[in-house]
C-alpha cells in the first residue's frame, strides 16, 4: 500500500452533522528504552464532530465511511480551507489494513490515517525521524469496522542520498498489544 500525501484527497466531502469543535492532545514521543506511557483510550465521536489538532487541521468522520481533513490556508493564501476526504469503506481500502496521510510543512506535520478491519483499533504508533509518536484513535459509536488516528509530529526532510527519513512507519494495535496492521516503506518493512 502506498502512502497518501496530503494533496491527494478526493475533493469535496459531504458534511454530516453539525460540527462540535474539540482539540487534540499533543504528540507524545515514546522512547524505545522507556516503558510506553498508558495510551489514551479511543475517542468516540458523533458523525461530523470536528476535532482540531494543534496545527489548525480539522478532522472528522462520516456515517458513510469518510475520513475528512480540512487544512488551513498558508499565510498569504486566500480562499476557503482545503477539504479532503478518503473513503474508508470502499474496495480501494483493503480489509485489515491501515493507511497514512500526511499534511503540513515547516511548522509541523499532521500524521493521520484510517484502519479498516475486524479488530478493535485501540492504539496507533507513528515512527518517523527516529521518534515514535503515539496517535489518538477516533471512532464512531458501535462497531463501524473502521477507525482513524491522528498525531502532530515534526516536519521531516527526506535524505536524498539514502531516501530515508520522510516516510513514517504506522502500526495499529489492539488493547492487549496485538498488532492489527502495519504500514511501512519497503526499506523498513522488515523491522
What structural category characterises the helix and strand content?
A: mainly beta
> What is the first-to-last residue Cα distance?
17 Å
Give the domain tally. Answer: 1
Secondary-structure element sequence?
Answer: EEEEEEEEEEEEEE
Question: Radius of gyration, Cα only, in angstroms?
Answer: 16 Å
Runs in which pLDDT lies below 50 for 5 or more consecutive residues are 1-37
Shape: globular
Approximate helicity band: under 10%
| Overall number of strands | 14
Q: What does the main sheet amount to?
A: 10 strands, mixed
Q: What is the beta-strand fraction?
A: 35-45%
Number of helical segments with 4 or more residues: 0
Write the layout of secondary structure elements.
Elements: E1 4-5, E2 43-45, E3 51-52, E4 58-61, E5 66-71, E6 82-87, E7 97-98, E8 101-105, E9 108-116, E10 123-128, E11 131-140, E12 146-153, E13 169-173, E14 179-183
Parallel strand pairs: 1-8, 2-11
Antiparallel strand pairs: 3-4, 4-5, 5-6, 7-9, 8-9, 9-12, 10-11, 10-13, 11-12, 13-14
What do you see in this structure?
The protein is an all-beta fold and 191 residues long. It has one domain (17-28, 40-188). The chain is built from no helices and 14 strands. Strands 1, 2, 7, 8, 9, 10, 11, 12, 13 and 14 form a ten-stranded mixed β-sheet that branches. A four-stranded antiparallel β-sheet has the order 3-4-5-6, with no helix packed on it.
Question: What's this model, at a glance?
Answer:
This protein has strands spanning 4-5, 43-45, 51-52, 58-61, 66-71, 82-87, 97-98, 101-105, 108-116, 123-128, 131-140, 146-153, 169-173, 179-183. It has 191 residues and is mainly beta.
Amino acid at each position: 500500500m502506498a502512502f497518501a500525501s496530503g494533496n491527494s484527497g478526493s475533493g469535496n466531502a459531504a458534511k454530516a452533522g453539525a460540527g462540535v469543535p474539540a482539540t487534540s492532545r499533543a504528540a507524545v514521543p515514546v522512547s524505545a528504552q522507556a516503558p510506553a506511557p498508558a495510551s489514551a483510550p479511543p475517542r468516540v465521536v458523533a458523525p461530523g464532530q470536528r476535532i482540531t489538532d494543534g496545527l489548525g487541521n480539522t478532522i472528522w468522520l462520516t456515517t458513510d465511511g469518510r475520513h475528512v481533513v480540512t487544512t488551513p490556508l498558508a499565510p498569504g493564501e486566500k480562499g476557503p480551507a482545503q477539504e479532503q476526504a478518503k473513503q474508508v469503506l470502499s474496495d480501494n481500502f483493503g480489509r485489515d489494513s491501515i493507511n497514512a496521510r500526511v499534511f503540513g510543512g515547516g511548522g509541523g506535520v499532521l500524521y493521520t490515517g484510517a484502519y479498516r478491519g475486524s479488530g478493535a483499533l485501540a492504539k496507533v504508533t507513528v515512527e518517523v525521524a527516529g521518534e515514535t509518536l503515539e496517535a489518538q484513535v477516533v471512532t464512531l459509536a458501535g462497531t463501524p469496522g473502521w477507525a482513524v488516528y491522528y498525531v502532530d509530529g515534526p516536519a521531516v526532510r527526506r535524505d536524498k542520498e539514502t531516501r530515508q527519513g520522510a516516510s513514517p512507519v504506522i502500526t495499529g494495535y489492539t488493547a492487549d498489544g496485538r498488532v492489527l496492521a502495519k504500514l511501512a516503506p519497503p526499506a523498513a518493512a522488515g523491522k
